[in-house]
Here is the input.
Amino acid sequence: MKASIIAALLAGVASILPVSAYAQSATGTDPAAPDQTTPPAQASAAGDGEIIVTAQRRAESILTVPIAISAIGGDTLASKGIVNSASLATAVPNLQVSSPYGSTQPNFSLRGISVANEYNSNQASPIGVYVDDVYLASRTAHGMGLFDMERVEVLRGPQGTLFGRNTTGGAINFITKTPTLSGNQGYAEAGYGNFNTVTAQAAIEATMVEDELGVRIAGNYVKGDGQIQNVYPGGRDANSQDTLQGRATLRIRPGAGPLDIKLKVYGGRDRGSQAAVQGLLPYRSGLDFFQVNENRIGLNKTEAYGGSATIAYTVSPALTFTSITSRDGGKQNLQQAADGSPLDILDINWQSKFQQFSEEARFNYAAGKLKLVGGGFYGWDETITDNTFNIGQAIAPTINGGFFQHYRQVRRSYAVFAQGDYALTPKLTLTLGARYTWDRSQYRDGYAYLFAGNVDGARTPLATTVPCPTVPGTCAYNPAARYQLDGRNNALTGRVSLSYTFDNGTLVYASYNRGYRSGAFNGGGYTSSAGINYINPERVNAYEVGLKGRYLDNALTLSMAGFYYDYRNQQVQDTRPGPVSFLVNAPKAEVYGVEGEARLRVAPTLTLNAAAGYLHSTYKELTLQGTNLSGNDLPFAPRFTAQAGADLTLFRRGTTGLTLSPSVAYFSRQYFSPFNAVNAVGTAQQNRELQQEGYAKVNLTAALTVDRFTFKAFANNLLNARTYAYGLDLRGAGFPYNFLVPAMPRTYGLSARVSF
Here is the structure.
């Protein structure tokens, strides 16, 4: 049954899809993980327009990797208007990005797998997010601005071997530019756009000793007024921007020999205003879609910083050792008015501090018919949370109050892994990989209490709610009371793949992958300790077939994949009377679909690219709030997605030219809740509000290059589509409205760049 579904879907796509797919040239290698069969001098020149990726921890052509992967080069990110991680969905099939906080703490959804209706900062993303192969445990750190990037690699499907931590849905690896150890270079760019938005970006690379010592320093700055108007007198506009980021990388290769060291430090902070919230309906009367009437628009204050050391040593022509050590940290202070009204109905202050350490050591071996990667991983991360939930008239009709919540979560993960490619024949390759993971978690210092007090005012504790197994107000206040819990689980994951390369270069493959996301604590339990539990890990058995190749004298690059997932124990929120929020497992879901990417060079002056995806993702077994939701769609999983674009050079004379790059992205209807449009019996839910109908967004850039200078005009969401990015049920929790977050309006502007 599984094989027949995949084969039928893939055959259908093959018949209609010389328009499907997308990939841009992004040359460059990862010296930390070279393909030993390719001399380093040739690794970045695998062919005209060919893409080099490191998805298998070695540099190789994307067309030889039997994985569904999209690679977006740094120049393409700019031409497509992708300035932060939250914008990636416009370029990758079957990828969605959402957040209740705007671009902060994004929720990535790949092929329907996401955090669903879970929004707490302590949860791990089922889409592993990496920067230069360093796993980022905190989802707060995922909302990054993209600058001075080499490329972004998006691996769809569970990556249970080489990107093994919590990747039931896939992995995203952001790869920054590093010193080339050859010459001096750099650029500076400044721009201005609507909403009084000022941008500046620069990078400089200096080679102190040719082939031995170099440094690259880059920075990014964005500041702009709120993009959603607040009509409340004197109120702050929502969705403003205030970002500052910096990064420095030192590369050392003593004597141009076998040792290659990269030392990187980075830091960044955001101070933009909160995402707009459409809530209480009486205060939406007379407002435009991109307006709110809110008395307390807060700020999204986040910080992220850290450093890493990547050390690669070529032991022999066949063997390389790589060590990646990182230490990262940061914090968030999100001041969120969550009612969309001039009343103090629900105001939340989300505060967390996080830090992490990780070490990965691996060997790359390539000789004869065998290519092998093996090693070990250790990761440690800590999240300390102090949230405040101010609820109008929480105590009595005339007495405001709310809840304060504190806990400390520590997770440790250990793993060993190995993956080998063996050439059974010159054209047929077998891949076998396995990873064994030990996860250990602690929930410590947990306490919460009910208080009386106004927003920003003094709090008077009334009753302890954690630890307390019953409804709020039934346990006397005890400032010394604490709650703690331990969790542990182990997992064996891995990959089996068989790939065949035809004489014309076409690669076909079939694979089985097993993915895993560790068990989790309920970070949303603050009204009662009855809801603070440790639930089972997620597991995915994924079956995939695909093909890749170049055709029409290499003018057309095409890749397609069909997949089927047996998805178990998705971690979702369940609100029950009390009110108590439980983290529970959705026993079983089924996901299948197809996707494709294509790039066609029609002429030297015209290149077309496109991507398309079909996704069927439904719960086979799920009950929330006593309601059977079997057959419902998974959240943030539209059935159809499509992207198309072009790069048209209107004229070119020597180093002067003008290029126009239009693009469009389409998404069919998606739900924001596992309930879809179903209401739980006995509640005031109106879940039909928690969806976004199908829509398309158009982006356009025009770039004029004159020698070393580039002048660019851009417009994102050119037609000013009015769409929602996120929704959450609050009616079922006793509030008289649902929580909806509008996506961004049209933005446009100009920039100038000089390269040197």
